[in-house]
């Protein structure tokens, strides 16, 4: 997001928005860092507060090795990104809003990884979706920013709905929404008949969030966001939320053939595809975005297994990728901020003007390339060891990891070497200069941590990796040891092959890029497919609107009652038991009179062409209903019915004078269909009433109102007491609805010319 250097210089600490967010994130980082000794000793910290006690829902938070690793990455990298943003967006008119959004995102992500209740986790999951939408679309003045933000929102939001359905099924099967309690039940989900639907729904949510192929295309498009957002979302936060959830659910959903093959194939395809696409890009941010996809595919690939080496590879690479990816994104932001471009073909020789940035980029890229003595080398060795330890298809997994690692080495060279050390300038940069310390702090610290953990890997193993493996597989599983030198073995051979293959990819990168661009023109573009899907949905919505909202009141009423009929009849067909026996009571003369009045009024309404006669027929039906209430001992309800019926008839008569003529063409073609619908609804409602009255009536509410009507509400008319006291807000709402409808009808009638 270049171009802020010309804005009037304001100190980064001139406003609270520049100072408070990094301080808050750093304080949270120190708080979580203080928990490391306890978690390293295999302790688990948990807090709980009641949220909806009647439903057994609580807000519960849990800190173990897995959640603590994510919490430290979120707050630690967050503090550096916030500090970086204070200079990168200095002088931006919406800087305070940006910092508010990104702090909200950090807190949402923290809630997600710390939640021990599935419903609490889902709330924070959706909050990350909303806040990431706001961040990706921060530059909302551009069509690209709006499109990218909407794409991320719709895709991840749809996945979130699937995830919620999966969580509800898990709660029904396990009898609880607490993750710690579900884990204690062992294989209860795997043994359930609902295991496959649960797995499909959960993976739908995690795959969309972590951009697994073919749902990957929203993530590179998210580069429309400012660089600090890309550094934060793509290194340690949003895109790894799906990885976190797969790791968290691994003990309860993993270990089956379906889990193994779905995650293995999806992860391998995503990793290899993204690595190839990363080599194709000339925009440095786009290239790094695809390497994030590669990392997400690799993590998914190893989460398919349930062996210590594979899960150790997950925890190690999780930290490794977060460190070097955040550092390199911030470096790209510095390049863009200082030169006005981030296209690699336009850059070269920046090391002379930006030596500190060049060193930070080089150290981070060496970790990304997997060279010793950096933690990336150890992570790569562990990945190869984990691939070979997978019992199902070690050759397939190792081959996918080898190809993706070699391509990553080439991309690391493109990002770190070409802009800084290439001699020839293909385009003269715009006044390259070193960034201020607020922007350099992040890349330097993160790159240095990659070197520190590489030299002292046991520090990372004891504090985060081993507790993380225990949180996923249990304390009985022995994690793999992190060593800078593990001897001459097959993983080392694969590393040497990676170096050679990666150097070849880098050396022939221009030819490969040209070939990949030509190949891409002949392959389907998933991003365009997204546009086609949206166009199809818009066309469907337009067709549905034309069908349902055609401007005819008769059609509106018909569709409303037809929907009601389908819902009632469908429920009876699918859920109801045997039909109750129909017993005809002995009818007296007054009963027959009432029946005759109601039937005559209904027939008159159906057959007449006169609106006045139709009104009279409806009035007769209303009077017949009032007589039924009188016969069965409810005179107060009968009086209410008569008053309402009289009012309705009068109002309808007034309105009818301004309504168009009934059946102006005289065909009455709609009458048979309307009659069939009316008869069907009548039969359906009758069947429902027979079913309701066939069994014993639950009198608990009746008894309660009879007992409490006078002592608590001081009323002897139970119906009035229920309406005015016990259901006062409901009654007020109903009155408000009727009043609003009356005002609307009055406005429509007044505005219509006779």
Q: Could you walk me through the main structural features you see in this protein, from its secondary elements to its overall organization?
A:
The protein has 754 residues and is mainly alpha-helical. 72% of the residues lie in helices and 2% in strands. It has helices at residues 16-33, 36-40, 65-88, 95-114, 118-136, 143-174, 179-184, 195-209, 218-221, 227-235, 241-253, 257-280, 284-303, 308-339, 355-369, 375-389, 394-416, 418-421, 437-455, 457-473, 490-507, 509-520, 526-548, 553-575, 589-607, 611-631, 635-656, 671-694, 700-713, 718-726, 728-751; strands spanning 45-52, 57-63. The protein has a two-stranded antiparallel ribbon with strand order 1-2. A hairpin with a 4-residue loop joins strand 1 (45-52) and strand 2. Helix 26 packs antiparallel against helix 27 (635-656). It is elongated, with a radius of gyration of 34 Å. 41% of the residues are buried.
């Amino acid at each position: 997001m270049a171009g802020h250097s010309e804005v009037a210089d304001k100190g980064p600490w001139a406003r609270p928005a520049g100072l408070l967010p990094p301080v808050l994130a750093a304080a949270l980082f120190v708080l979580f860092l203080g928990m490391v000794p306890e978690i390293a000793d295999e302790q688990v910290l948990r807090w709980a507060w009641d949220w909806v006690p009647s439903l057994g829902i609580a807000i519960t938070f849990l800190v173990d090795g897995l959640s603590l690793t994510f919490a430290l990455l979120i707050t630690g990298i967050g503090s550096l990104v916030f500090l970086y943003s204070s200079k990168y967006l200095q002088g931006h008119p919406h800087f305070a809003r940006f910092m508010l959004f990104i702090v909200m995102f950090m807190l949402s992500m923290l809630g997600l990884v710390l939640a021990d209740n599935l419903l609490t986790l889902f709330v924070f999951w959706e909050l990350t979706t909303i806040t990431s939408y706001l961040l990706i679309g921060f530059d909302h003045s551009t069509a690209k920013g709006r499109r990218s933000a909407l794409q991320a929102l719709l895709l991840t939001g749809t996945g979130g709905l699937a995830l919620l359905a999966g969580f509800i099924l898990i709660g029904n099967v396990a009898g609880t929404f607490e993750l710690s309690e579900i884990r204690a039940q062992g294989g209860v989900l795997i043994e359930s008949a609902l295991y496959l639907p649960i797995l499909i729904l959960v993976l739908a949510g995690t795959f969309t969030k972590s951009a697994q192929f073919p749902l990957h295309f929203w993530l590179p498009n998210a580069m429309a966001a400012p660089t600090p957002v890309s550094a934060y979302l793509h290194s340690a936060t949003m895109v790894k939320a799906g990885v976190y959830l797969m790791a968290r659910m691994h003990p309860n959903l993993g270990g089956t053939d379906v889990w193994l093959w779905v995650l293995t194939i999806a992860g391998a395809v995503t990793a290899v595809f993204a690595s190839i696409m990363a080599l194709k890009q000339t925009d440095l941010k786009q290239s790094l975005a695809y390497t994030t996809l590669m990392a997400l595919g690799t993590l998914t690939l190893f989460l398919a297994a349930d062996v210590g080496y594979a899960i150790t590879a997950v925890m190690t690479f999780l930290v490794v990728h977060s460190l070097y990816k955040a550092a390199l994104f911030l470096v790209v932001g510095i390049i863009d901020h200082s030169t006005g471009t981030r296209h690699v073909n336009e850059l070269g020789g920046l090391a002379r003007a930006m030596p500190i940035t060049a060193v930070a980029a080089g150290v981070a890229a060496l970790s990304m390339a997997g060279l010793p003595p950096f933690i990336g080398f150890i992570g790569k060795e562990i990945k190869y060891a984990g691939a070979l330890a997978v019992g199902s298809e070690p050759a397939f997994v190792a081959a996918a990891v080898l190809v993706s690692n070699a391509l990553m080495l080439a991309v690391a060279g493109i990002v770190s070497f070409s802009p800084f050390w290439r001699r020839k300038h293909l385009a003269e940069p715009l006044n390259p200069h070193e960034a201020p310390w607020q922007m350099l702090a992040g890349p330097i610290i993160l790159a240095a941590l990659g070197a520190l953990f590489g030299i002292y890997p046991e520090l990372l193993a004891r504090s985060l990796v081993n507790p993380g493996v225990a949180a996923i597989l249990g304390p009985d599983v022995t994690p793999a040891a992190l060593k800078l030198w593990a001897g001459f073995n097959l993983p080392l051979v694969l590393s040497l092959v990676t170096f050679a293959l990666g150097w070849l990819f880098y050396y022939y990168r221009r030819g490969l890029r040209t070939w990949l661009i030509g190949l891409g023109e002949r392959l389907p573009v998933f991003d365009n497919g997204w546009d086609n899907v949206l166009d199809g949905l818009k066309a469907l919505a337009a067709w549905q609107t034309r069908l349902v909202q055609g401007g005819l009141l008769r059609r509106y009423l018909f569709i409303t009652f037809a929907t009601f009929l389908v819902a009632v009849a469908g429920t009876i067909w699918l859920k109801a038991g045997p039909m109750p026996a129909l017993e005809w009571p002995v009818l007296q003369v007054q009963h027959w009179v009432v029946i005759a009045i109601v039937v005559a009024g209904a027939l008159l309404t159906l057959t007449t062409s006169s609106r006045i006669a139709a009104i009279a027929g409806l009035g007769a039906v209303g009077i017949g209903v009032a007589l039924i209430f009188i016969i069965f001992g409810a005179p107060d309800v009968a009086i209410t019915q008569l008053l309402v019926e009289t009012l309705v008839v009068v109002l309808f008569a007034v309105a009818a004078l301004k309504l168009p003529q009934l059946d102006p063409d005289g065909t009455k073609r709609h009458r048979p269909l309307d009659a069939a619908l009316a008869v069907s609804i009548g039969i359906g409602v009758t069947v429902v009433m027979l079913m309701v009255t066939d069994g014993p009536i639950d009198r608990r509410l009746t008894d309660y109102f009879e007992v409490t009507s006078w002592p608590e509400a001081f009323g002897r008319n139970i119906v009035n007491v229920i309406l005015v006291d016990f259901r006062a807000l409901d009654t007020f709402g109903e009155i408000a609805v009727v009043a609003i409808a009356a005002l609307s009808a009055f406005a429509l009638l007044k505005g219509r010319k006779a």
